[in-house]
Design goal:
With about 240 residues, this protein is α/β, with parallel strands linked by helices. The chain contains eight helices and ten strands. The protein is about 35% helix and about 30% strand. Helix 2 packs parallel to helix 6. The protein is globular, with a radius of gyration of 17 Å. The structure holds hypoxanthine. Hypoxanthine (HPA) binds next to strand 5, strand 9 and strand 10.
Amino acid sequence: MSTPHIEAQKNQIAKTVLMPGDPLRAKYVAENFLEDVERFNAVRNMFGYTGVYNGRRISVMGSGMGMPSIGIYSYELFKFYDVENIIRIGSCGAYTDTLDLYDVILAERAYSESTYASVQAGEAYEPYTHPSETLNGRIEEIADSLDIELHKGTIHSSDVFYRENFEDFKRIRDTYGAIAVEMEAYALFHNARITGKRAATILTVSDSLVTKQETSPEERQKSFTNMMEIALRLAE
Ligand code: HPA
């Protein structure tokens, strides 16, 4: 079988899929953390791999940037490839000065002004979507056992990276309680709900809208090991 965007056979993809935004980060995780790796997708260079971590099978695939992109890939994985769990592992911009570069965030809720969920399901607009409590519970246990501090809170899934009114992030932070911004979780959580599956989002702070600090793409690619270590332990 294949779908318009994934060329894999069903049994080539594990029940749990980690999804970084960047397909090259998926390649990096596969090459540096997994054994017995097989690439199952290269359509549009949106690389996906399945391998073994600590004796357990797990997949990792790029989601692309933004809700339309992760919306397509996560829907196809959940609906047509019998994937049970998708864990987004991404980067985010901090909305508060209590977060530092490289802090790890576990999303408890995603706020968005996006129409993705309402259009997808033909439902009224809801400002928030939610991750799986089961997955979040396991992520907290794993982080605890690895002594990695998790910052839990609401994140903002934005359709816009470059805003003309830069300071508007403060309104979103203060009105909706968002501690950081990324561009995918709201759609991922919606797709999990609509397909009866599970999703979670772990983020590493790559820049701060408050202090204007940022990391380089190379640092981002390599320095996210804390988040990976947590996510890989979710292999079934
Ligand atoms: N905005 C949106 N998404 C992001 C950002 C940001 O500042 N940083 C990392 N992902």
